[in-house]
Structures are given as structure tokens and as C-alpha cells.
Amino acid sequence: MQFRNLKMVDYVVYGRGCFHQLDAILAPNRKNQAPMIFLVDHFFEGKPLISKIPLRGEDKIIFVDVTHEPKTKQVDALAQDIKDEFGTISGVVGIGGGSAMDLAKAVSLMMNNPGSSADYQGWDLVKVPGVYKVGIPTLSGTGAEVSRTTVLTGPERKLGMNSDFTPFDQIVLDPELTKDAPANQRFYTGMDCYIHCIESLEGTFLNEFSKSFGEKALELCREVFLSNEPWSDTSDDKLMMASYAGGMSIAYSQVGVAHAVSYGLSYLLGTKHGVGNCIVMNHIEEYYPAGVAEFKKMVAHNNIDIPAGICKGLTDAQFDTMINVSLGMKPLWENALGKDWQQIMTREKLRALYEKL
Ligand code: NAD
Ligand code: ZN
Questions:
Q1: Pocket test for ligand 1, best of 151, 235, 252 (most atoms within 8 A of CB)
Q2: The CATH number of 183-356 is which of 3.40.50.300, 2.60.40.10, 1.10.150.20, 1.20.1090.10?
Q3: What is the pLDDT of residue 155?
């Protein structure tokens, strides 16, 4: 039996307003005159947060377009532009949701690894550490702040650069940064965390490490999404810790059916991770009866619309593409359904599920 030797984030600062410590945190990590590059979610362009970014010397803010989930060619272009303009840099700071954080991780790695980021989509293909990297979430739920992956859509596959070099050196968890998130977006990304918990806790890979974090994250999700009080600062505080703990839970287990199916949607239709998981979760009571019932309760309680009918009119070839992508996520299926998962999740069964979405 081989046990996972988990590489974690080196430094974590948590607290409402802790963003103001960023200047002091970055200072010892600045190398000579080399700049820090801030990759900031384009939502914040022109917003007050920008004036609080501690720019020094040649530091630069680059607003990143996260309309679509990160692509390998976007990462390669960003890394090349930074190399062309500055040569070497001190580090990359990603500020935003899972997309901006994933871009920051990937760009950091591509500053020091040759070729295209597409060459490193997979497990443990990254050869050398990237530059110093910091993650600062402005949405809570994905767990991208703690994970050892950065999910990228490449020419051939949607797959992360999973490696021990991928986790951030530092994360800054300041719940104040999440306060302007629109209710729908906050819910979709928050449900990513809820679904991480259900898939981890109901999975065959479960162990006490994952369970400890998963149960706490689940409890926090329930407190925020089933509360009778209006959304408050405390809700943001809790959801940020739920995201962290949910990410720690799956780091030592795996996700399951909702993620495996949602990957197919996102590959073919570009459906974003959070909402895609919700679309699938709405229809998989067969696998997670209690989790799906509670999910539906949360949807109703928060007055959220979950899109439906997104697979209407797709061709056989398109269904096949989604099925291939989904069935390629072997560890997810094995976690969800056990070693004999291929007998349970046949192509016909998966097709029928996609047709319902
Ligand atoms: P996101 O980063 O894609 O952002 C969604 C939208 O919210 C964007 O329009 C963005 O501009 C906006 N936004 C961000 N912060 C905001 C704020 N404070 N106020 C208002 N709007 C704000 O959403 P997400 O759900 O956080 O991340 C999804 C991405 O994360 C996907 O690309 C997915 O593949 C990735 N992901 C990565 C991991 C990992 O472990 N690396 C895990 C799960 C998901
Ligand atoms: Zn997820």
C-alpha cells in the first residue's frame, strides 16, 4: 500500500482584512529588482480593491479574462508576454476565483518549465518548480487555493497540471474579498465545495483524514446555505473556511459522479465548473440520495435557478464525446462506485444521464 505524501501550501494567512498584510508578506520574496506580477480577475478592473494592491518598482497588474475557464494557450501567452517584458520576475500573485488562481499557478510553473503548458497536463509531468506564487481567492468553494492542480483546457484534453510544484507558496484568505459576489455565482461556486464534501464522504477512497476535513466543510456549508438569517460577513467567513477544508478533504480522497459527468459538459459545451456540477447534482439521487435531497433544499432555500435542458438537440457524436471525456476520469468513478465501476456506469447509462441534463 502506497500512501500519498501530500504537498501542501507553505503559508496561510486567514482573517477579515488580512489582505493589507500582502505588502509585508511579499517583501522577503522579492528578488533584487524583479517585479511581482498580479494576475487579477477582470471583474476587479476599476474596483476599489485595485488601489490596495501593494505595487512596488516595476510590479505590474494584468487583468485576466475569466469569461471562459483557463486554456493552455492563454497560460502560454501570458507567460510569454511576461518573459518578453521582464525576463525574470519575483513571483505571480493570482487574485480572483478558481479561474484566476489556476491561471496564476500555471503561469508560475510556465515561467521555468520549457514548452507549452499542454505538455504538462497530467500527473507529475512538471519538472522544476515555478516562480514564487500566491493565491488570493475572491470567491469561495473550488478549493483551488489548496489543491495540487490547475485545471486547463488544452488542444486535446481538459486536465490539470497535477504536481508537487503546483500548490501555492502562500495563500491569503480574506473573506472581505468575497462580499460582492452575486448570489447565483456565490451559490454555484459554494456548491462546488458542498459537492466536494458529498463526493468525498460518500466515496470508497474515504479515510479519517478526508473525513475530518469533509465533515467540517459540510457543516459550514449547511450553516451558510440553510440559514434563515440573511447573508452576512459571517457567512463569507464560514464559506471561505468551508472551501479550504473541502479542498483538503478531496486532496486526500477524490471527487465523484457529479465532477466526472460535469467534466464532459465543460469539455463539449464550455459549461463552467460550478454551475455544471449543480446541473449534474440535480439528477444523481441514485448515487447520492441524501446529498442530492439536501442540495435541492439548498437550491430552493436560496432561490437559485439551475439551468436545465442543456443537452437537448445534441448529436450522437457529441454525446459520445462527453461520454468519452467522462469515462476517462477513472479515479473519480472508482472512488464513487468502487473497483467494478465499469460494470455499473456503462456508456448507455451515462448517455441516459446526459440526456436528462
Ligand atoms: P471563476 O473564477 O470562473 O469566476 C466566476 C465569475 O465570478 C467570473 O465572472 C469572475 O469574474 C467573477 N468573480 C470572481 N470573484 C468575484 C467577486 N468577488 N465578486 C463578483 N464577481 C466575482 O469561478 P470559480 O467557481 O471560483 O472557479 C471555477 C474555476 O476553477 C474553473 O476554471 C475550474 O476548472 C477551476 N477549479 C479549479 C480547481 C483546482 O483545484 N485547481 C478546483 C475546482 C475548480
Ligand atoms: Zn470541484
A1: 151
A2: 1.20.1090.10
A3: 87
